[in-house]
Amino acid sequence: MRKKILLRGPVLSRSGYGEQARFALRSLRRHEDRFDVYLVNTQWGATGWTPQDNEERQYIDFIIQKTYHFVNNGGSFDMSLQVTIPNEWEKLAPINIGYTAGIETTKIAPGWIEKSNLMDKIIVISNHARNTLVDTVYEAYSQQTNQHVGNASVETPVEVVSYPAKLTKKKAVKLDLDTDFNFLMVSQWGPRKNIGNTIKWFTEKFKDNPDVGLVVKGFVKSNCTMDRAYAENALKSLIEKEAKCKVYLLHGDMSDEEMIGLYSHQKINCLISLSHGEGFGLPLFEAAYSGLPIVTTNWSGQCDFLNMPVKQRKKGAKKKTTTVMKPMFAEVSYTLGPIQKEAVWDGVLQADSNWCYPEEDSYKSILGDITDSYDKYKDVATKLKAWIKKEFESDKQHDAFANAVLVKTEEIPVGNMLVSFD
Fold this sequence. Notes:
Elements: E1 3-9, H1 16-29, E2 35-41, H2 55-72, E3 79-83, E4 95-100, H3 110-116, E5 121-124, H4 127-135, E6 138-141, E7 148-152, E8 158-160, E9 181-188, H5 195-205, E10 212-219, H6 225-238, E11 246-250, H7 256-263, E12 270-272, H8 282-288, E13 294-297, H9 303-306, E14 307-313, E15 321-327, E16 330-332, E17 334-338, E18 354-358, H10 360-372, H11 374-391, H12 394-405, E19 410-414, E20 417-421
Parallel strand pairs: 1-2, 1-3, 3-4, 4-5, 5-8, 9-10, 9-12, 10-11, 12-13, 13-16
Antiparallel strand pairs: 6-7, 14-15, 17-18, 19-20
Helix pairs in contact: 1-12, 5-10, 10-11
């Protein structure tokens, strides 16, 4: 029997959580033999909505209306799937599943533990997100006596399902670039993305090189005209005044097809990210399966897809091999340290948690090596692209997500018999 499942999340948002909610919706929709899907669309911060007017958008509008009439007529759900940060999770149905990008730091907030334990299952998008959820432990004290009564931690099962490598066709993007070799940065403006150092150190490195450019695809809150003006002013304040390299601002809504066209553009040579941490790192993932060389750190969510299993000969053995995870990108050194005061978000980003601080000298050295030895990095990126296309294949990931929500058939051996339950 199909389960009536309520999906609550920012399905129409142009954001990371919006992409996550759409992936969940597509996975459920592919398995309509198991799921009767209902939808409550939510807002995600101040981000805008997706501009597409296609078959999927028509389907979304249809099930939003379907949900409205179903609820108003007293309908109830068998399950809920809630796409957001854990402190917003609620019991909405007999079975409740939380789906989150997790956290970009080393520790979750105490309120996340309480809300996580309301859920029957949690799905996350990276091993970093899972490990931070299950490894965070707080001491619990009695409100009456203030005595230590034990430890509090997430007890709900947590499963990792990564994003799929999309089969999106690329659409040509016109870029008016004067420079021959160009790096790309894709990011929303904010403390976690470390944009200031990314741009400042870049222009310091290439201050005497007029042939190198940096394309900044970014926004602050939305893609409106006022946001563009703010982004332009912020960008100008970061650029080395005497720098001969070029910094370009690319602002405004772009479709999935246009983003793939951007990553594949003949004048875009490399993606850079000095983010303090990622729940997953969607732009890094998209660039990687587009075959674009990448500069970043080997910490947090991106580790799942930027490190590829390779076989190498065991030390001291002529024939025996072992499989190791090899970084298939330009690896910037880093240290872990407390998050900045301006990044603290009560109930989400803990003041006593740590995240990654990329090192300036390592970053600048790698930038120079990429411009000097680009073919080496392009070869590595091509190998990584082939592996991601196979390991994160679209049907495989959509099926994995649907099974994480509800396995189609549970098979339990009883003696010599095999009993199936649908």
